[in-house]
Design a protein that fits this description.
extended
């Protein structure tokens, strides 16, 4: 970042934000969303499963097919706040002819009485071949949270 300058006062202010019109697209697969609640009466666990799909669309002007979606899972056992977990898996796909790429991001969250646990995995694929992967696990003190 550059330091402030005396000339800054003479700069014109930014105008309002601009958004271009969307590219024309053909819907190949419609968007969808589902939510399921599962209760285990034996151990008092409640689980919420969410599946979201943004659909698959073909952009004629650039000959590109794209899709995206996620799966989410939330779980907790009644009376045990440290049993709460959340996981999600997001993906984005792009295709043109024989070329096909996908990015997938997986995240998991949990907590103990003293720490938050976070783990993530980011992967990129060309076709079915993984070309990139990065993972991390972090343990973060709760500090009375």
């Amino acid at each position: 970042m550059r330091p402030p300058s005396a000339e800054d006062d003479r700069l014109a202010p930014f105008g309002p934000p601009e958004t271009p019109p969307p590219l024309p697209a053909d819907e190949l697969v419609p968007a969808s969303r589902s939510r399921q609640v599962v209760r285990d009466l034996r151990d008092g666990a409640t689980e919420v499963l969410v599946k979201r799909r943004r659909g698959t669309h073909y952009l004629r002007d650039v000959d590109l097919t794209h899709g995206a979606g996620c799966d989410e899972r939330y779980r907790i056992v009644e009376g045990d706040p440290t049993s709460a977990t959340q996981s999600s898996s997001w993906f984005i796909t792009l295709e043109r002819g024989d070329w096909r790429v996908r990015v997938q991001a997986d995240l998991a969250l949990a907590a103990t009485a003293t720490r938050f646990q976070v783990s993530a995995l980011l992967q990129a694929f060309e076709g079915d071949r993984r070309v990139f992967s990065r993972a991390f696990d972090r343990s973060i003190p709760r500090d009375l949270v």
